[in-house]
Amino acid sequence: MDKVMSNKWIIALYVLPSIILIMAVIYVPIVLTGYYGLMDWDGVSSMKFIGLDNYVALFKDHAFWESVGHSFLFALLSTLSLAVYLIVAMVLAGNIKGANLFRKIYLLPMLLSSVAIAQLWMKVYHPTSGILNTTLVSLGFSDPPAWLSDTKYVLGALFVPILWQYAGFYILIYYAALKNIPNTLVEAALIDGATHRQIAYRIKLPLITEVIKVTIVLSVVGSLKYFDLIYVMTGGGPNGASDVMASYMYQRAFKGFDFGYGSAIGFFLLIICLAATWIIRKLTATKDSIQYS
After folding, report:
1. How many Å apart are CA 272 and CA 254, to the nearest integer?
2. Whose CA, among 179, 204, 249, 280, lies 20 to 30 Å from 243?
3. Is the pLDDT of residue 290 over 70?
């Protein structure tokens, strides 16, 4: 067996199917998307090469830059919400009574599809029969807002179900990381007179720094390419007030039948995600990582 595994051709043969699959599913579509972005194409007729015209048009497209701003707003809010998830995970990891029940409750949204969650929250936000406006009316508000059709409220209304949908995912990641910290470190700190707050900030947080960095990247990149829940709930409306990059790309490509321009938006979205990942890794880079046994 050792002789077989030392043969480079045998190793290459084992790895080849995975390489072919990765190329077919990831890299070839990326190249094709960039290529289609150089074309004037409605998805049916023959393509016409127009060079960088689609990419130049992006920088002049006010609606596109509004969608970029919305995407980055969601990314900022999602990153800030990680602090809430971390606090909840620390409380649950503190062996409080009912922690297992709460952990299961937080995971429930992960079992639902984005479409089901969108339909659920559309019922909550319904302007006349939704539970939110019904409650506001019962509290004395005579004219509660139409949450999903008012440009002032739609982005905030959309972020709430996004926050709810991914809470369990990040809480679970933080909970697992916190539970991986040896109890002996916490017990030694308690013996030395440290408070629970000091243990949280001086011991637990430094030990899960790498996990926090990963969740920041996941949160930012995931927010930048978010699409399904927003598309089902508002379709990017009203008047583009809730459009994000992915939904705007869909509107231009599949509803406007401008697949060349839609592909240019998709390729630009990829570049933004890669740049955001690189910037986050640079900003959070540390020379040494804390180790514990």
Report:
1. 22
2. 280
3. no
pLDDT score at 160: 93
Instruction: Kindly list the distances between the CA atom of residue 241 and the CA atoms of 30, 191, 202, in Å, as whole numbers in the listed order.
Output: 29, 55, 43
**C-alpha closest to that of 229 among 109, 76, 68, 136:** 109
Confidence band for 5, pLDDT divided at 50, 70 and 90: low
Show contacts of 57-63: CB within 8 Å, 24+ apart.
57/261, 57/264, 58/264, 58/265, 58/268, 63/240, 63/243, 63/248
Question: Does position 126 have pLDDT exceeding 90, yes or no?
Answer: yes
* Global pTM exceeds 0.70: yes
